[in-house]
Each structure stands twice: as structure tokens, then as C-alpha cells.
Specification:
10 helices; alpha/beta; 215 residues; five-stranded parallel β-sheet
């Protein structure tokens, strides 16, 4: 099985991979002996023998093996893909390979190795483009609710304007706001008090001030 988890929304990509690792550990690998991640240690390159060893090996005292490879598709050149393509295509059914990619879906989906491996029988894809607009607002609302809080529409709009699509920062701000509001609904006043405006918003204010000669 090959699983592609990819996108420039690195928060949701990392969260999805984490969920898969936890589910695999609970069901197949409580000892951690059948999970491998690359690149490992201080390494930044991928050696064929080192990666394909776990990919082609049968699990040790278990039913499945999981191999997680980060930013591999994005960094593999077309000239080098043949050996990798054959290796992954011939992986045993007991191996689950997760390609953890932090590049935009449009870029990853054009990569020759991605296109070639998509033809493998058991392939699953989870693209995570950067959220914006209604999708971003919905994600924030769901995150607030999951933490046991609620948020007003005015506060939600202000939060989007101040933090934008950076979900790493947004998750931090949501946690802070829910804790601060307690059992009360998160209001615009809470956002104004606790959430700093982003750099882009400050630049626009500066430009407006300069154009109006407000020193």
C-alpha cells in the first residue's frame, strides 16, 4: 500500500501523518519494531539500499510494516526515478509506505515519480492545500468546538484577518483564546486583546498612514 499525504498546508499534513502513525502503532506495532522513517538522524539524502531494506522486508513478529518517507517525491529527479519506481511497485502487501510531502498539491501531482506510482493498484492520496475563505473559517470553528469552546462570527473574522492561513499559528491562538474565554463565547474583544496583528495587516496600515500624511 502506498499513501500520499501532501500539500503546502504543512499543519494538516503533519497531523494526518501523526494520526496514521498512532493508528498503525495501536493496531499493528505496539513495540515500534515495524516502523521506519526517512531521512533518519542528520541525513538529508535517500540511499536506495537503506530505504528499500525496510520497504521490501516482511514485518518482524507482526502483520504489517510502515515506512514513512518525508519530502521524497519533491526531491527525486527524473533521472533517478527508475530504481525507486520498481522498488516501491514491488513492495510486499504487508508494507505500508507513507510519502509525507510538504509541497503544494499542484507541484507534487506533476512530479514524474508521483504520476508513475499512482498507477500502482493500492494507492491512497490525501492532498492538503492551504486553507482560505470559507474552508479556513470552518476549520477554525471546528477547532474551537473540539477544544470545548465557541466563537462569535465577529471574532472569527478578526482571527482570520490577523492570523491568516498559517494553521500552526492559528492552532496556538485558538488554544489560547479557548483557555482565556473559559465557558464564555470567544468575542471580538478577546481577539483584540490576545491576538497580535500579522505583519501584512500592519504594512497596509502603514501605507494608509503614509498616503494620508499621518506621521
Amino acid at each position: 500500500m502506498l499513501i500520499f499525504v501532501y500539500g503546502d498546508d504543512t499543519f494538516r499534513v503533519a497531523e494526518k501523518v501523526k494520526q496514521m502513525k498512532q493508528a498503525f502503532k495501536a493496531k499493528f506495532d505496539p513495540t515500534g519494531l515495524n516502523t521506519a522513517e526517512f531521512p533518519s538522524g542528520d541525513k538529508t539524502k535517500y540511499e536506495v539500499g537503506e530505504v528499500m531494506g525496510p520497504v521490501r522486508s516482511f514485518p518482524f513478529l507482526g502483520q504489517k510494516r510502515m515506512v514513512i518517507i518525508r519530502d521524497f517525491i519533491a526531491n527525486t529527479k527524473k533521472a533517478d526515478m527508475d530504481v525507486w519506481e520498481k522498488g516501491f511497485q514491488n513492495a510486499p502487501d504487508s508494507t505500508i509506505v507513507i510519502f509525507w510531502e510538504t509541497t503544494s498539491p499542484k507541484e507534487i501531482e506533476k512530479k514524474p515519480l508521483f504520476v508513475a506510482l499512482k498507477s500502482v493498484a493500492d494507492v491512497h492520496s490525501y492532498p492538503f492545500p492551504e486553507l482560505e475563505g470559507v474552508a479556513l473559517s470552518r476549520w477554525i470553528s471546528e477547532r474551537v468546538k473540539a477544544r470545548g469552546g465557541s466563537i462569535s462570527s465577529q471574532a472569527l473574522q478578526a482571527l482570520v484577518e490577523r492570523v491568516g492561513g498559517d494553521l500552526w499559528a492559528m492552532d496556538h491562538e485558538v488554544s489560547k483564546l479557548v483557555a482565556f474565554a473559559g465557558h464564555a463565547e470567544i468575542s471580538r474583544a478577546h481577539v483584540d486583546e490576545l491576538v497580535s496583528r500579522n505583519f501584512e495587516e500592519k504594512i497596509f496600515e502603514l501605507m494608509d498612514a503614509v498616503s494620508q500624511k499621518r506621521t
